[in-house]
Amino acid sequence: MYQALYRKWRPKTFDDVYGQAHITKTLKNEISTNHISHAYLFTGTRGTGKTTCAKILAKAVNCLNPVDGNPCCECEMCKEIERGSVTDVSEIDAASNSKVDQTRELIEEVNYTPSQAKYRVYIIDEVHMFSGGSFNALLKTIEEPPEYVIFILATTEVHKVPETILSRCQRFDFKRIDTSEIIRRLNFIAENENITLDPKAANMIARLSDGGMRDAVTILDRCFSITDKIDETIVADTAGVAGSYFLFEFSEHIANNDISSALKLITKLYNETCEIDRLCIELINHFRNIMITKTVKDAGDIIICTGEEMEQLKQRSEKYSLSKLIFCIETLEKSLNSLKTAANKKIHLESAAVRMCLGSLAAETAPAVNVNTQNSSFPKANKSAPDAKKETKTPVTSAKTENINKEPEKVKDIDSYPDGRFERWGEVLEKLSVKIPPMYSLMFDSEAAVESGRIIIYSSNSSLYDYIFKNDTNRIEFLRILYEMTGFRFKIGVKISSAAGEETPSPLDSLKSKINSFNS
Predict the structure, then answer these.
(1) 50 CB contacts (<8 Å, ≥6 apart)?
(2) DSSP state of 503
(3) 16: burial class by Cβ within 10 Å (0-12, 13-18, 19+)?
(4) Residue 144 to residue 509: CA distance in whole angstroms
(5) Which of 520, 452, 461 lies closest to 494 in space, CA to CA?
(6) Residues 129, 308: Cα–Cα separation, whole Å
(7) What is the DSSP string of 359-415?
């Protein structure tokens, strides 16, 4: 019967474990010096080696001939434990045994001495799935178990484990495995399985695994079921992601503000069964790599990629400003969060691509736009403040007015704020979503630029102007948020994309119009 590669190549000793030297070194030393704890807690993300180290530890403490803290893997006890035929070593799934009665059965069993091995070892996987009653029942036993019992608890969600349990265990935190370590392990397995693994393919698998060795080996196994010559295309097709060629092509279209080509590429990848969620994550990582290449001198120490890809990243970084790269990453992050509840994920990613292309256009064309605005500055704490209150249509509570009128020791000069796209607009929208949800719903797809000390809001929602300028409370609260975030007393204006009474153009015509005006 075929055995999955992640099971076939699961490490047998601590020395075989990749990327967790800070843990394996400590465990080996404890076994060598016979300072074995009665309870261990292994925590970390999936596929980082928690269960593997637990099984190795169970073998090592019962091995007849341990070698420097490692199990020998040759004695009868090691072989029997490896086969799972030793009743003294039990692996328990907490999700399936979460009831109090099942925990009490385990506690009763603890009282029996080992029948074959030196220690009775209980490996409880995903221990956070235990109920509160189960934890309480286990509490006393895990604090003072018989001298021949060892508990090894493993979890991916340590915050769900009660402090009373945590304080009674020796805790080990498994970190995400470095990409270079995963690539090294993949090449080792490929060599022994007679698999031809392209460097780009290994790099892509390592990225997709997100620091989990088991996920990486599983992807390799899926590719191996197709062919023993694995390249980047095979990995992309198998995992449902876009290859680096398409990622560079997409960033080229965004750099050129080429909406049409960007949307066509998304459609092409979607039709080729590329998962939109995974594509969005890959694009975020791609723009992150471009950003690092642009800002860090030795980017090769941070980004794991081939020499050819590094050269492409350097070339691409020259086509982007740092602000636009950050804007693209933030836009894709928001889109990724929205995908969880989106009725049509493809449309969400398409709208993100459009915003990425037009994000810089609003700032570049803002000075040339005639804007309908209303002078509205942040209230100042001076003698004229009472008059300002009289003009307010909607009264503001004294506590809120006192907070608004409180002036800092040093007020920033508004003339010092540079004109152009307002870089912190995403943060403003995020704060509005919490403090003024109705205003956020009107501004959700808006952009903003700074012009001569005034923030100009670009929106297609005709209700936004009235909402801000016909309600003093809304306007003052909005200005207060801007002031708290920046320290500047901005004035505000609103630019509605279509005037009242005019026929609203289609989104496609509107985009074409904006692009043509920019190019001219």
Answers:
(1) 42, 43, 44, 154, 155, 174
(2) P
(3) middle
(4) 74
(5) 461
(6) 46
(7) HHHHHHHGGGS---B---PPP-SSTTHHHHHHH-SS---HHHHHHHS---SSPPPGG
What pLDDT score was predicted for residue 253?
92
- Spell out the residues 6+ positions from residue 293 whose beta carbon is closer than 8 angstroms to its own: 299, 303, 310, 313, 314, 316, 317
Cβ atoms of 47 and 215 closer than 8 Å: yes
Domains in the chain with CATH codes: 5-174 (3.40.50.300), 177-239 (1.10.8.60), 244-368 (1.20.272.10), 370-496 (3.30.300.180)
Positive or negative, the CA dihedral 244, 249, 250, 255 is positive
Residue 508 has pLDDT above 50, yes or no: no
Instruction: Tell me whether strands 491-496 and 39-44 are parallel, antiparallel or unpaired.
Output: unpaired
Decide: 105 and 40 in contact? Cβ < 8 Å: no
Left if phi > 0, otherwise alpha if psi is -120 to 50, otherwise beta: which for 390? alpha
Amino acid, res. 295: T
pTM over the 0.90 mark: no
Strand, helix or coil at 424? coil
Distances (CA, A) of 323 to 210, 254, 420: 27, 14, 11
Rounded-to-integer distance, Cα 504 and Cα 493, Å: 21
Q: Is 501 helix (H, G, I), strand (E, B) or coil?
A: coil
| Residue given tokens 């090769």 in the structure block | 300
Residue among 220, 213, 328, 207 at smallest CA distance from 278: 207
Residue type, position 423, single letter: E
The pLDDT of residue 382 is 39
Q: What is the mean pLDDT of the chain?
A: 80
Nearest of 340, 331, 382, 380 to residue 358 by alpha carbon: 331
Please say whether the beta carbons of 327 and 355 come within 8 A.
no
Written as six digits, the tokens of 64 are 């007849």
In sequence order, the 6+-apart residues with CB closer than 8 A to the CB of 317 are: 290, 291, 293, 294, 325
Mean pLDDT score, 108-121: 87
Contact 360, 326 (CB under 8 A): no
